[in-house]
Amino acid sequence: MRTSSTIRTGRTVKRTTRAAATLAVAALTLSLTACGGDDDNGGGDSGDKGGGTKAPASSVTLPKLDGESLEVAAVWTGTEQKNFKQVLTEFEKRTGAKVTFVPAQDPIINFLGSKIAGGSPPDVAMLPQPGAIKQAVDKGWAKPLGAEATKELGENYSQGWQDIGKVGGKQYGVYYKAANKSLIWYNAQVFENAGAAEPKTWDELLDTAQMVYDSGVAPFSVGGADGWTLTDWFENVYLSQAGPEKYDQLAQHQIKWTDPSVKEALTTLAEIWGKKDFVAGGASGALQTEFPASVTQTFTGGDQPKAGMVYEGDFVQVNIGETKAKVGTDAKVFPFPAVGDTAPVVSGGDAAVVFKDSKAAQALATWLASPDAAAIQAKLGGFLSPNKSVDASVYPNEVQKKIADALIAAGDDFRFDMSDQAPQAFGGTPGKGEWKTLQDFLKNPKDVAGAQAKLEADAAAAYGG
Description:
D-Maltodextrin-Binding Protein, domain 2, transport, Bact_solute-bd_prot1, signal, ABC transporter substrate-binding protein, SBP
Protein backbone atom coordinates (compact mmCIF):
# COMPACT_ATOMS: atom_id res chain seq x y z
CA MET A 1 0.00 0.00 0.00
CA ARG A 2 1.80 3.07 -1.22
CA THR A 3 0.73 6.64 -1.80
CA SER A 4 1.06 6.14 -5.52
CA SER A 5 2.12 3.28 -7.67
CA THR A 6 5.78 2.59 -8.09
CA ILE A 7 6.17 -1.03 -8.92
CA ARG A 8 9.69 -2.02 -9.88
CA THR A 9 9.80 -5.24 -11.85
CA GLY A 10 13.36 -5.60 -13.00
CA ARG A 11 13.85 -2.31 -14.80
CA THR A 12 10.24 -1.34 -15.40
CA VAL A 13 8.44 1.15 -13.20
CA LYS A 14 4.71 1.86 -13.14
CA ARG A 15 3.42 5.18 -11.83
CA THR A 16 0.09 6.74 -11.05
CA THR A 17 -0.70 10.34 -10.21
CA ARG A 18 -0.32 12.12 -6.90
CA ALA A 19 -4.06 12.76 -6.97
CA ALA A 20 -4.75 9.05 -6.97
CA ALA A 21 -2.21 8.67 -4.20
CA THR A 22 -4.04 11.18 -2.06
CA LEU A 23 -7.27 9.22 -2.49
CA ALA A 24 -5.58 6.03 -1.34
CA VAL A 25 -4.19 7.74 1.76
CA ALA A 26 -7.58 9.22 2.52
CA ALA A 27 -9.19 5.79 2.21
CA LEU A 28 -6.68 4.28 4.60
CA THR A 29 -7.05 7.09 7.14
CA LEU A 30 -10.83 6.93 7.06
CA SER A 31 -10.77 3.16 7.36
CA LEU A 32 -8.58 3.16 10.45
CA THR A 33 -10.32 6.02 12.21
CA ALA A 34 -13.69 4.41 11.44
CA CYS A 35 -12.61 1.45 13.58
CA GLY A 36 -13.15 3.41 16.76
CA GLY A 37 -11.82 1.59 19.79
CA ASP A 38 -13.88 -1.55 19.68
CA ASP A 39 -12.79 -4.94 18.50
CA ASP A 40 -15.58 -7.27 17.44
CA ASN A 41 -13.02 -10.08 17.34
CA GLY A 42 -14.20 -11.34 13.98
CA GLY A 43 -17.62 -11.97 12.46
CA GLY A 44 -19.99 -9.03 12.56
CA ASP A 45 -21.91 -7.66 9.63
CA SER A 46 -18.87 -7.23 7.44
CA GLY A 47 -20.41 -8.95 4.44
CA ASP A 48 -20.89 -5.64 2.67
CA LYS A 49 -17.61 -4.11 3.76
CA GLY A 50 -15.29 -5.89 1.43
CA GLY A 51 -15.45 -3.36 -1.40
CA GLY A 52 -15.96 -6.13 -3.93
CA THR A 53 -13.78 -8.61 -2.05
CA LYS A 54 -16.32 -11.44 -1.86
CA ALA A 55 -14.80 -14.90 -2.15
CA PRO A 56 -15.82 -16.81 -5.29
CA ALA A 57 -18.44 -19.53 -4.98
CA SER A 58 -16.12 -22.26 -6.27
CA SER A 59 -12.82 -23.37 -4.76
CA VAL A 60 -9.52 -23.62 -6.55
CA THR A 61 -9.01 -26.88 -8.46
CA LEU A 62 -5.89 -28.81 -7.47
CA PRO A 63 -4.47 -32.06 -8.85
CA LYS A 64 -4.11 -35.27 -6.89
CA LEU A 65 -0.52 -35.59 -5.69
CA ASP A 66 -0.55 -38.74 -3.58
CA GLY A 67 2.99 -39.75 -2.68
CA GLU A 68 4.53 -36.42 -3.72
CA SER A 69 6.78 -34.53 -1.27
CA LEU A 70 7.55 -30.80 -1.33
CA GLU A 71 9.67 -28.36 0.62
CA VAL A 72 8.74 -24.73 1.20
CA ALA A 73 11.38 -22.32 2.50
CA ALA A 74 10.66 -19.03 4.30
CA VAL A 75 12.24 -16.86 6.97
CA TRP A 76 9.03 -16.88 9.01
CA THR A 77 9.25 -17.90 12.65
CA GLY A 78 6.99 -18.20 15.69
CA THR A 79 3.28 -17.61 15.25
CA GLU A 80 3.68 -16.57 11.62
CA GLN A 81 5.31 -19.88 10.75
CA LYS A 82 2.77 -21.82 12.79
CA ASN A 83 -0.14 -20.14 11.00
CA PHE A 84 1.36 -20.67 7.55
CA LYS A 85 1.77 -24.35 8.31
CA GLN A 86 -2.01 -24.57 8.67
CA VAL A 87 -2.28 -23.34 5.07
CA LEU A 88 0.15 -26.05 3.99
CA THR A 89 -1.78 -28.67 5.96
CA GLU A 90 -4.94 -27.85 4.01
CA PHE A 91 -2.99 -28.21 0.75
CA GLU A 92 -1.91 -31.66 1.92
CA LYS A 93 -5.52 -32.63 2.65
CA ARG A 94 -6.70 -31.50 -0.77
CA THR A 95 -3.90 -33.05 -2.82
CA GLY A 96 -2.43 -35.92 -0.82
CA ALA A 97 1.04 -34.39 -1.02
CA LYS A 98 3.39 -34.06 1.96
CA VAL A 99 4.78 -30.56 2.54
CA THR A 100 7.76 -29.78 4.77
CA PHE A 101 8.44 -26.23 5.96
CA VAL A 102 12.15 -25.35 5.78
CA PRO A 103 13.22 -22.46 8.06
CA ALA A 104 15.45 -20.04 6.13
CA GLN A 105 17.77 -17.28 7.27
CA ASP A 106 18.14 -13.72 6.05
CA PRO A 107 19.18 -12.92 3.43
CA ILE A 108 17.13 -15.72 1.94
CA ILE A 109 18.79 -15.41 -1.47
CA ASN A 110 22.09 -16.49 0.15
CA PHE A 111 20.33 -19.34 1.95
CA LEU A 112 18.83 -20.50 -1.34
CA GLY A 113 22.21 -20.24 -3.04
CA SER A 114 23.73 -22.63 -0.53
CA LYS A 115 20.81 -25.07 -0.90
CA ILE A 116 21.08 -24.99 -4.69
CA ALA A 117 24.85 -25.41 -4.58
CA GLY A 118 24.29 -28.49 -2.43
CA GLY A 119 21.81 -29.89 -4.94
CA SER A 120 18.76 -29.56 -2.67
CA PRO A 121 16.74 -26.46 -3.55
CA PRO A 122 13.27 -26.15 -2.01
CA ASP A 123 10.33 -26.63 -4.35
CA VAL A 124 8.95 -23.20 -3.43
CA ALA A 125 10.42 -20.29 -1.48
CA MET A 126 8.75 -17.20 -0.05
CA LEU A 127 10.83 -14.20 -1.15
CA PRO A 128 10.31 -10.90 0.68
CA GLN A 129 11.84 -8.59 -1.94
CA PRO A 130 11.20 -7.94 -5.65
CA GLY A 131 14.98 -7.53 -5.89
CA ALA A 132 15.43 -11.09 -4.59
CA ILE A 133 12.99 -12.43 -7.20
CA LYS A 134 14.99 -10.75 -9.95
CA GLN A 135 18.23 -12.13 -8.55
CA ALA A 136 16.76 -15.64 -8.48
CA VAL A 137 15.64 -15.26 -12.09
CA ASP A 138 18.96 -13.79 -13.23
CA LYS A 139 20.80 -16.73 -11.64
CA GLY A 140 18.53 -19.20 -13.44
CA TRP A 141 17.10 -20.56 -10.18
CA ALA A 142 13.47 -19.42 -10.36
CA LYS A 143 10.95 -21.04 -12.70
CA PRO A 144 8.07 -19.18 -14.41
CA LEU A 145 4.60 -19.86 -13.07
CA GLY A 146 2.56 -22.40 -15.00
CA ALA A 147 -0.76 -21.77 -16.70
CA GLU A 148 -2.96 -22.73 -13.74
CA ALA A 149 -1.07 -20.59 -11.23
CA THR A 150 -1.02 -17.66 -13.65
CA LYS A 151 -4.76 -18.04 -14.25
CA GLU A 152 -5.50 -18.08 -10.51
CA LEU A 153 -3.30 -15.03 -10.03
CA GLY A 154 -5.06 -13.13 -12.82
CA GLU A 155 -8.48 -13.84 -11.34
CA ASN A 156 -7.62 -12.79 -7.80
CA TYR A 157 -5.01 -10.02 -7.96
CA SER A 158 -4.92 -6.47 -9.24
CA GLN A 159 -2.54 -5.83 -12.11
CA GLY A 160 -0.15 -4.00 -9.80
CA TRP A 161 0.30 -6.99 -7.51
CA GLN A 162 0.77 -9.24 -10.53
CA ASP A 163 3.40 -6.90 -12.00
CA ILE A 164 5.69 -6.87 -8.97
CA GLY A 165 6.02 -10.64 -9.34
CA LYS A 166 7.14 -10.34 -12.97
CA VAL A 167 10.66 -10.24 -14.38
CA GLY A 168 11.25 -9.63 -18.06
CA GLY A 169 7.52 -9.81 -18.71
CA LYS A 170 7.19 -13.33 -17.26
CA GLN A 171 5.28 -14.16 -14.08
CA TYR A 172 7.49 -15.64 -11.38
CA GLY A 173 5.98 -14.56 -8.07
CA VAL A 174 2.65 -14.93 -6.28
CA TYR A 175 2.40 -12.21 -3.62
CA TYR A 176 0.75 -14.38 -1.02
CA LYS A 177 1.24 -11.91 1.81
CA ALA A 178 1.14 -8.10 1.90
CA ALA A 179 1.93 -5.59 4.59
CA ASN A 180 0.79 -2.06 5.34
CA LYS A 181 3.95 -0.52 6.75
CA SER A 182 2.48 2.89 7.53
CA LEU A 183 0.97 2.31 10.96
CA ILE A 184 1.82 3.33 14.52
CA TRP A 185 0.38 1.15 17.29
CA TYR A 186 -0.14 2.54 20.77
CA ASN A 187 -0.97 1.48 24.29
CA ALA A 188 -4.45 2.94 24.86
CA GLN A 189 -4.02 3.17 28.63
CA VAL A 190 -0.77 5.11 28.27
CA PHE A 191 -2.43 7.58 25.91
CA GLU A 192 -5.36 7.98 28.29
CA ASN A 193 -3.06 8.60 31.25
CA ALA A 194 -1.09 11.16 29.25
CA GLY A 195 -4.20 12.88 27.88
CA ALA A 196 -2.86 12.22 24.37
CA ALA A 197 -4.82 11.93 21.14
CA GLU A 198 -3.97 10.27 17.82
CA PRO A 199 -1.74 12.65 15.81
CA LYS A 200 -2.25 13.37 12.12
CA THR A 201 0.95 15.31 11.39
CA TRP A 202 4.61 14.87 12.32
CA ASP A 203 4.54 17.93 14.56
CA GLU A 204 1.50 16.52 16.35
CA LEU A 205 3.36 13.20 16.73
CA LEU A 206 6.23 15.03 18.44
CA ASP A 207 3.76 16.79 20.74
CA THR A 208 2.07 13.48 21.54
CA ALA A 209 5.44 11.89 22.26
CA GLN A 210 6.26 14.70 24.69
CA MET A 211 2.95 14.18 26.50
CA VAL A 212 3.66 10.46 26.84
CA TYR A 213 7.17 11.21 28.07
CA ASP A 214 5.86 13.71 30.62
CA SER A 215 3.51 11.02 31.93
CA GLY A 216 6.51 8.86 32.82
CA VAL A 217 6.66 6.46 29.86
CA ALA A 218 9.18 6.44 27.00
CA PRO A 219 7.24 7.40 23.86
CA PHE A 220 8.69 4.92 21.35
CA SER A 221 9.80 1.32 21.27
CA VAL A 222 12.21 0.68 18.40
CA GLY A 223 13.38 -2.76 17.29
CA GLY A 224 16.77 -1.50 16.18
CA ALA A 225 18.43 -4.92 16.35
CA ASP A 226 16.56 -5.63 13.11
CA GLY A 227 17.78 -3.08 10.58
CA TRP A 228 14.72 -3.47 8.35
CA THR A 229 12.54 -1.69 10.91
CA LEU A 230 14.76 1.37 10.59
CA THR A 231 14.54 1.38 6.79
CA ASP A 232 10.74 1.38 7.17
CA TRP A 233 10.91 4.44 9.45
CA PHE A 234 13.05 6.22 6.85
CA GLU A 235 10.79 5.29 3.93
CA ASN A 236 7.66 6.67 5.55
CA VAL A 237 9.32 9.96 6.42
CA TYR A 238 10.97 10.23 3.00
CA LEU A 239 7.87 9.39 0.97
CA SER A 240 5.72 11.92 2.79
CA GLN A 241 8.35 14.65 2.92
CA ALA A 242 10.12 14.31 -0.44
CA GLY A 243 7.11 13.07 -2.41
CA PRO A 244 6.47 10.06 -4.64
CA GLU A 245 8.60 11.19 -7.59
CA LYS A 246 11.72 11.53 -5.46
CA TYR A 247 10.87 8.23 -3.77
CA ASP A 248 10.82 6.57 -7.20
CA GLN A 249 14.15 8.07 -8.11
CA LEU A 250 15.89 7.12 -4.88
CA ALA A 251 14.44 3.59 -5.04
CA GLN A 252 16.11 3.14 -8.44
CA HIS A 253 19.26 5.03 -7.42
CA GLN A 254 18.55 7.65 -10.08
CA ILE A 255 19.40 10.23 -7.43
CA LYS A 256 22.15 9.79 -4.87
CA TRP A 257 21.75 9.23 -1.16
CA THR A 258 23.74 12.45 -0.73
CA ASP A 259 20.74 14.33 -2.19
CA PRO A 260 19.38 17.16 0.02
CA SER A 261 16.05 15.31 0.27
CA VAL A 262 17.78 12.46 2.12
CA LYS A 263 19.45 14.95 4.45
CA GLU A 264 16.05 16.44 5.26
CA ALA A 265 14.52 13.04 6.00
CA LEU A 266 17.38 11.93 8.24
CA THR A 267 17.27 15.25 10.07
CA THR A 268 13.54 14.73 10.63
CA LEU A 269 14.08 11.19 11.94
CA ALA A 270 16.64 12.55 14.37
CA GLU A 271 13.86 14.59 16.00
CA ILE A 272 12.74 11.28 17.51
CA TRP A 273 15.82 9.07 17.40
CA GLY A 274 18.05 11.81 18.80
CA LYS A 275 15.69 13.10 21.49
CA LYS A 276 16.92 12.02 24.92
CA ASP A 277 14.72 9.31 26.43
CA PHE A 278 12.21 9.34 23.54
CA VAL A 279 13.31 5.80 22.61
CA ALA A 280 12.93 3.05 25.21
CA GLY A 281 16.34 2.02 26.48
CA GLY A 282 18.00 4.75 24.46
CA ALA A 283 19.89 3.94 21.27
CA SER A 284 21.91 1.16 22.90
CA GLY A 285 18.77 -0.49 24.25
CA ALA A 286 16.96 -0.18 20.93
CA LEU A 287 19.89 -1.73 19.08
CA GLN A 288 19.61 -4.78 21.35
CA THR A 289 15.84 -5.03 20.92
CA GLU A 290 14.55 -7.32 18.19
CA PHE A 291 11.30 -6.51 16.45
CA PRO A 292 9.01 -8.93 18.37
CA ALA A 293 10.25 -7.58 21.71
CA SER A 294 9.74 -4.01 20.53
CA VAL A 295 6.05 -4.83 20.21
CA THR A 296 5.49 -6.93 23.31
CA GLN A 297 7.26 -4.45 25.60
CA THR A 298 4.79 -1.78 24.46
CA PHE A 299 1.79 -3.82 25.58
CA THR A 300 3.02 -5.46 28.78
CA GLY A 301 3.58 -3.87 32.17
CA GLY A 302 0.09 -2.50 32.78
CA ASP A 303 -0.07 1.27 32.46
CA GLN A 304 3.72 1.52 32.86
CA PRO A 305 5.11 -0.40 29.89
CA LYS A 306 8.58 0.29 28.53
CA ALA A 307 7.07 2.43 25.75
CA GLY A 308 3.78 3.94 24.69
CA MET A 309 4.05 3.49 20.92
CA VAL A 310 5.66 1.18 18.41
CA TYR A 311 5.90 1.79 14.67
CA GLU A 312 5.45 -1.10 12.22
CA GLY A 313 2.98 -2.80 9.92
CA ASP A 314 -0.30 -4.62 10.33
CA PHE A 315 1.65 -7.81 11.19
CA VAL A 316 2.35 -6.31 14.62
CA GLN A 317 -0.92 -7.97 15.65
CA VAL A 318 0.79 -11.37 15.74
CA ASN A 319 3.12 -10.11 18.46
CA ILE A 320 0.40 -8.22 20.30
CA GLY A 321 -1.41 -11.56 20.44
CA GLU A 322 1.46 -12.89 22.56
CA THR A 323 0.50 -10.40 25.29
CA LYS A 324 -2.75 -9.96 27.19
CA ALA A 325 -3.56 -6.81 25.21
CA LYS A 326 -6.62 -6.87 22.95
CA VAL A 327 -6.35 -5.28 19.49
CA GLY A 328 -8.82 -2.43 19.12
CA THR A 329 -9.23 -1.95 22.86
CA ASP A 330 -5.88 -2.09 24.66
CA ALA A 331 -3.80 -1.84 21.51
CA LYS A 332 -4.92 0.76 19.00
CA VAL A 333 -3.48 2.10 15.77
CA PHE A 334 -3.28 5.24 13.67
CA PRO A 335 -1.81 5.93 10.21
CA PHE A 336 1.78 7.15 10.07
CA PRO A 337 1.38 10.93 10.32
CA ALA A 338 1.97 13.29 7.41
CA VAL A 339 5.48 14.71 7.43
CA GLY A 340 4.86 16.67 4.23
CA ASP A 341 1.63 17.42 2.38
CA THR A 342 0.39 13.83 2.29
CA ALA A 343 0.59 10.97 4.76
CA PRO A 344 2.69 8.03 3.51
CA VAL A 345 1.33 4.62 2.55
CA VAL A 346 4.14 2.09 2.17
CA SER A 347 3.62 -1.60 1.42
CA GLY A 348 5.67 -4.75 1.45
CA GLY A 349 5.01 -8.42 0.86
CA ASP A 350 6.22 -11.98 0.44
CA ALA A 351 5.97 -13.83 -2.87
CA ALA A 352 5.86 -17.57 -3.50
CA VAL A 353 8.44 -18.44 -6.16
CA VAL A 354 8.88 -21.87 -7.76
CA PHE A 355 12.39 -23.37 -7.72
CA LYS A 356 11.52 -26.86 -9.01
CA ASP A 357 9.32 -26.87 -12.11
CA SER A 358 7.25 -29.86 -11.08
CA LYS A 359 3.51 -30.53 -11.10
CA ALA A 360 3.50 -30.44 -7.28
CA ALA A 361 5.41 -27.15 -6.99
CA GLN A 362 3.16 -25.46 -9.57
CA ALA A 363 0.10 -26.79 -7.73
CA LEU A 364 1.33 -25.24 -4.48
CA ALA A 365 1.86 -21.89 -6.24
CA THR A 366 -1.69 -22.17 -7.60
CA TRP A 367 -2.98 -22.90 -4.10
CA LEU A 368 -1.17 -19.88 -2.62
CA ALA A 369 -2.70 -17.65 -5.33
CA SER A 370 -6.19 -18.75 -4.29
CA PRO A 371 -8.56 -17.03 -1.84
CA ASP A 372 -9.04 -20.39 -0.11
CA ALA A 373 -5.41 -20.44 1.06
CA ALA A 374 -5.26 -16.77 2.07
CA ALA A 375 -8.53 -16.98 4.02
CA ILE A 376 -7.08 -19.68 6.29
CA GLN A 377 -4.23 -17.48 7.49
CA ALA A 378 -6.33 -14.30 7.47
CA LYS A 379 -8.68 -15.86 10.04
CA LEU A 380 -5.73 -16.46 12.37
CA GLY A 381 -4.73 -12.78 12.53
CA GLY A 382 -1.52 -10.84 11.90
CA PHE A 383 -1.80 -11.44 8.17
CA LEU A 384 -2.87 -9.29 5.24
CA SER A 385 -3.59 -10.62 1.76
CA PRO A 386 -3.48 -8.64 -1.51
CA ASN A 387 -5.87 -11.27 -2.93
CA LYS A 388 -8.98 -9.25 -3.83
CA SER A 389 -11.18 -12.37 -3.76
CA VAL A 390 -10.72 -12.80 0.00
CA ASP A 391 -13.81 -11.59 1.87
CA ALA A 392 -12.75 -9.08 4.53
CA SER A 393 -15.19 -10.70 6.95
CA VAL A 394 -12.70 -13.54 7.52
CA TYR A 395 -10.28 -11.24 9.35
CA PRO A 396 -10.49 -11.73 13.13
CA ASN A 397 -11.05 -8.15 14.27
CA GLU A 398 -12.42 -4.86 13.05
CA VAL A 399 -9.03 -3.18 12.84
CA GLN A 400 -7.68 -5.87 10.52
CA LYS A 401 -10.84 -5.83 8.39
CA LYS A 402 -10.47 -2.10 7.81
CA ILE A 403 -6.78 -2.42 6.92
CA ALA A 404 -7.62 -5.21 4.46
CA ASP A 405 -10.43 -3.18 2.90
CA ALA A 406 -8.09 -0.21 2.45
CA LEU A 407 -5.48 -2.40 0.74
CA ILE A 408 -7.98 -3.78 -1.77
CA ALA A 409 -9.57 -0.35 -2.31
CA ALA A 410 -6.13 1.05 -3.20
CA GLY A 411 -5.93 -1.36 -6.15
CA ASP A 412 -2.75 -0.58 -8.08
CA ASP A 413 -2.23 2.66 -6.18
CA PHE A 414 0.59 1.88 -3.76
CA ARG A 415 4.33 2.21 -3.31
CA PHE A 416 6.42 -0.80 -2.50
CA ASP A 417 9.01 -0.85 0.27
CA MET A 418 12.09 0.97 -1.05
CA SER A 419 14.71 -1.26 0.57
CA ASP A 420 12.92 -4.33 -0.80
CA GLN A 421 13.28 -2.91 -4.31
CA ALA A 422 17.03 -2.50 -3.87
CA PRO A 423 19.67 -5.14 -4.54
CA GLN A 424 19.77 -7.37 -1.48
CA ALA A 425 23.36 -6.39 -0.69
CA PHE A 426 22.15 -2.85 -0.01
CA GLY A 427 18.56 -3.17 1.17
CA GLY A 428 18.18 -6.65 2.63
CA THR A 429 21.29 -7.94 4.40
CA PRO A 430 21.79 -7.86 8.19
CA GLY A 431 24.89 -5.97 9.22
CA LYS A 432 25.41 -4.41 5.79
CA GLY A 433 24.21 -1.61 3.54
CA GLU A 434 21.19 0.41 4.51
CA TRP A 435 20.33 -1.77 7.52
CA LYS A 436 23.75 -1.26 9.13
CA THR A 437 24.07 2.44 8.28
CA LEU A 438 20.69 3.28 9.77
CA GLN A 439 21.60 1.31 12.90
CA ASP A 440 24.75 3.45 13.13
CA PHE A 441 22.62 6.54 12.56
CA LEU A 442 20.26 5.53 15.37
CA LYS A 443 23.34 5.41 17.58
CA ASN A 444 24.58 8.80 16.37
CA PRO A 445 21.74 10.78 14.75
CA LYS A 446 23.83 13.96 14.63
CA ASP A 447 26.02 12.52 11.87
CA VAL A 448 23.63 13.10 8.98
CA ALA A 449 26.41 13.78 6.45
CA GLY A 450 28.32 10.66 7.49
CA ALA A 451 25.22 8.51 7.16
CA GLN A 452 24.49 9.93 3.72
CA ALA A 453 28.04 9.29 2.50
CA LYS A 454 27.99 5.69 3.72
CA LEU A 455 24.54 5.04 2.25
CA GLU A 456 25.66 6.37 -1.12
CA ALA A 457 28.89 4.37 -1.14
CA ASP A 458 27.05 1.15 -0.36
CA ALA A 459 24.25 1.90 -2.83
CA ALA A 460 26.68 2.69 -5.64
CA ALA A 461 28.47 -0.61 -5.08
CA ALA A 462 25.23 -2.61 -4.93
CA TYR A 463 23.57 -0.98 -7.94
CA GLY A 464 26.76 -1.14 -9.97
CA GLY A 465 27.84 2.50 -9.95
